[in-house]
Amino acid sequence: MQLLSLVGLALLATTASAAIPDWQQCGGTSWTGETQCSSTAGCVKVNDYYSQCQPGAASPDPQPEPQPQDPEASAVLPGTPTSTGTPAGTGPGTELQSGYYWVRAVAAPNFHKYVQSKPLYATGPAVLGDYTTAGQFQVVSGQLVQLVSGPGVKPEKLLYGVVSETRSINNNSLAISWSETQNTYGTFAWGGDDLQWSHPSINRPNKSAWYVCTGQLMYINLGNYLYQTPSGCADQTIHYYNDKKANN
């Protein structure tokens, strides 16, 4: 009987410590889930809020992430990492403010999904989401800015789209997140109505190519558009428009 109990406990321990599947989250600020990737993958930091199990990466022993004090709970899309810091703003509302644009995808499977932050109007990852929670954006001096203060509030409160310098997903993608400090890696621009990013050290075949991956997370695609798309991702270009209200 004692031997059977020990065997049962060992099986339970094995189940509890099952490895995280490839391309799934394994760490980040406020992450409380599993941190152990499979033996053929490593937990790679994408940004402060998100680490990911990537095949072929080194597999160091995972270190516990620092935990913020008194985190605030927020609803999230399945699989989307969150920030638990104080929201940067209350949001500009559902009517487009002067000088800003809605920015959305125009191809399946994300047709008319809108760029926004998660949680809304706060620091955290850039995602594509529903038109009812669409963010408002502009490109100013090479910075992608999101308006997060209420209508008429002066000075305006902004968040900045920040590009990770660490490559992820097939070593051919760069994650995007929102920060209260300006981006220092590369330059954003409008190419007609499409959103582009470039860096002098990177020769991109298509400056407008993006990936939208698990959890609706947005990445810059450094490779060719519609070629060797990673599992769990979709190719996208994203475009601005300026109707008074976002629509689906």
From TrEMBL:
Q: Which SMART domains match?
A: fCBD
Keyword Signal belongs to the record:
yes
Instruction: Output compositional bias ranges, type Low complexity.
Output: 70-89
**Could you say which residues form the signal peptide?**
1-18
One Pfam family matching this protein: CBM_1
Swiss-Prot/TrEMBL keywords: Signal
Annotated GO molecular function terms are:
cellulose binding
Q: GO biological process: any one?
A: carbohydrate metabolic process
Key word Signal present: yes
InterPro entries listed in its UniProt record: CBD, CBD_sf
GO cellular component, as recorded: extracellular region
Q: Which residues form the CBM1 domain?
A: 18-54
Region span, Disordered: 54-93
Superkingdom in the source lineage: Eukaryota
Name listed for the protein in its UniProt record: CBM1 domain-containing protein
Which species is the source of this protein?
Answer: Lophiotrema nucula
